[in-house]
Design brief:
The complex is a heterodimer of chains A (861) and B (119). Chain A contains 25 helices and 22 strands. With 861 residues, chain A is an alpha+beta fold. In chain A, helix 2 packs antiparallel against helix 3, helix 4 packs antiparallel against helix 11 and helix 16 runs antiparallel to helix 21. Chain B has 4 helices and 3 strands; from the N terminus they run H-E-H-H-E-E-H. Chain B has a 3-stranded antiparallel β-sheet. The chains are: A alpha+beta (861), B mainly alpha (119). At the A-B interface, helix 2 and helix 3 of A face helix 2 and helix 3 of B.
Chain lengths: 861, 119
Amino acid sequence: MRAYQLLLHLYPSSFRDEYGEELEQVLAARLARTRGLPARVAVWAGALLDVLCNAPPAHLDILRQDLRYTVRALGGAPGFTLTAILVIALGVGANTAAFSLADYVLLRPLPFPEPDRLVKLWERLPGYSEMELSPANYRDWQRMSGSFTAMGAFVSQSVNLVGQGDPQRIEGTGVSASLIPLLGVQPAMGRMFTEADDRDGAPATMLLSWSMWQTRFGADPGVLGRHLLLDGTPCTVIGVMPADFHFPNKLATFWAPLQLNEQAYQDRSNNFLDVVARLKPGVTPAQASADLAVVSARLKAQYPADNKNVDATVYLLRNDLPNQSRLLLLALCGAALCVLLIACANVASLLLARALGRRRELAVRAALGAGQSRLVRQLITESLVLAMIGGVLGVLVAISAVPVLAKLIPAALPLAQEPTVDFRVLVFAGLLTGITGLAFGVVPALRACSGSGLGGLREGQRAGGGQRERLRSGLVIAEVTASVVLLISAGLLMRALWRVQATDPGFRAQGVLTLRTALPSPKYDNVARRVAFYDRVLSDSCALPGVSGAAYVSFLPMTMGGGIWPVNVNGKTLDRTEGHTASMRFVTPGFFASLGIPIHQGRDVSEADTRDTLFTAVVSESLARRYWPRDNPLGQHFEFALHERTVVGVVGDIKVRGLETTSEPQVYLPYKQVNDGWFGFYTPKDLVVRASGDPMQLAAALRRIVHEADAEQPVSDVQTMSDVVEQETASRLLQARVLEAFAALAFLLAAVGIHGLLAFTVSQRAAEIGVRMALGATSGGIAQMVLRQGGLLALAGIAPGLALAFAAGRAMGSLLAGVKPGDPLTFLAVAGLCAVMTVGGSLLPALRAARTDPAVTLRAE
Amino acid sequence: MNKLPTPESLLPLPPATFHILIAVAEEDRHGYAILQDVEARTGGELRLSAGTLYRSIQRMLEQGVLVETRERPAPELDDERRRYYRITPFGTEVAKAEARRLAQLVRMARARGFVPAGH
């Protein structure tokens, strides 16, 4: 019989309480009538089957009843229902959106087989934890390590594609033959690269991306074997990659063999290879790291000059994500969680207030025979229904928010498309909704139905219950705390944004248009031909109305961090790891004037600086200060980029690496002194034009000028310099905006919470207030009393909020661009805001209390 | 609370419900007695399970076709843990309405020759 009693627990408790004993009696009677083991077994089996068949419908019966009742109860209080649903929708929506992003970037495995065996390898030098590999070190690591089944290298490439409509600049990736196979991917069509394709001097081959094949070649299967002109070189299409293959990121439209030549293996300090490897089964990244440490030690001994400081860094390819992005996502999730917490607290508070208002109704139902568990179940059903409607709306909120938030994600991941609200995310939202519903529903339901609560028939509407109010106060305090944390975090990010925006880039971006004409090899290998192109484009540009200057440079500031060379002064070989490096750019005369970089001393580069004359250089102030602090830098010599250079000018420093990163000093070299072997990378390709009006107006004219100079030359990256600078802060701006939106939401909810609690207290205490006033309390005194209560709530919330916000600020320190996590201005501003919020939230209830007419309230008694 | 529904609004009755109404029509019965009565009247063809019985009773109490009665049989026959159920006047109306509905169905079936003569 004990077993049967346990089995009966499958029924709803209200049903079990009512009929449990009788069910047992029936079974006992049936067993008493039966003789023989098989018959008894049959009775037991029947009983088991009976419970299994009837328990679910019994639950459904109750659910149906509760739902009917819920619809009536919620429909009867539309204001409450709407508020609760909206608040939940915002909470669930914010979290679903944040989760779909975090899931996409942090959790989801990479779209390659056995992604946990894919690792990224870097050289580690003092000051650089992640430096690309030099080809020689790459080859040695590959030979000498034992932890990997394969190792592959890649570099980004962009080339001019001619002969397919307008000439165009396309982005691709140079890969070693081993790279794509080690990822575990095969072409959708055609064949993979072989070692022969990767050999120096082999006929050029390429694989197209699926999207490139679709858009540029109309998905023509005949594309295999076609010859495309890339930078003037015919290149055979050997295959098309699958639609979901994006490596190293979404920008790559084609892949071509690296074809490293012997010369590339000479210089161990020429680091440009990104390297991915596949671990042998069972080998951990830590073991691989130890293995490479041994390899690096051997290489240090073997090549002390170049490798004495070179170690290895190994981590999962999955984690190849800027720390800032990871931190940002975590901050986003934290903010969303805060909002959800506040939303839950708010709805719980609403439910508590409502439960008080429903004491009489619940008491009547209890008196009519509904057990406590039955009433709790009913109230929780109500909460879950609210949560579910809110959850569905929340998912809609998330669907509309995700595309905006997706811009927070760096494009640097080998993932497909955009993050979307998919099945995983929906499951998450569903769970979240359920937990939310329980979180804000259970405590109010238990409270409302507790023994003392059901004394409501006697007490009617009157009693407030000190305990209950303490709970609500606690909830409001939690809301204030969370919103203080969010407000301060948003404030700190905002301050960081302003600080970064106020950074002087060292040049005047306004009024400058830029575009890129990357000259292809071998067509422009000849210096004279190149110079003719530049001269033609620059003189035509300068002749345009409103143009005050035009020049070419290797790379625009802020678009390219690399191009760094060691600096040697006075014949001493200085160690590159000690920061004796400078960024190198070749420029045409007039570059400094066009970009508004001040020339402090000496002269600009000139047309007369050719390879037949002295090798000259214009250096930035910081370089001059570093090496010739007491002497006149003009006429000084230093060794740089394989030649001895003479300083002919000193210019202001600029933020080459961007507003937030420390940049190396700059060295500018005359455009006619480009080394023979360096064609392509360093040859000037970015045109800057300064104009008096809106620079964008010049775009069409400049395109025409380039077309007239060389009809096959593509123009890419047309943008104003102001846009380039703004892109530096674009993600920060978006971060700050998103967190601000969350903070504003939290702020509003907390204000609503304070208002709701006070308004409720005032209405509950109407009689008491009436008595006080009848006994001589003034309106002002009463208003003060209510305001004081609001103030105390706010203070109790703000104090822990400030402490938590300080901790949050420290956790996201690297996002703050040097703003202190305890920035007094932000803290003061937020404290002030909270004071305003408190007064705003308390004002109406205070006024209502002050306007209490003692005669009316006392008569109501 | 709920307004009382019309008898017709409950039709057609689930078979178990109709059998329970018939079982309690002549006298108040407790749950196990209802099971035995149904089994006896149908010659063992219909054996209601306990779960079905009490779920039906719960619903029928809510619908107002049954009440639990406080009158108990003579103490020597009574088990005090047992609860006795009585049909309400509304319950009688419902049972009659269901019987009429079934009779009408049988009439129609007979007109089409579905029912052999003599039945």
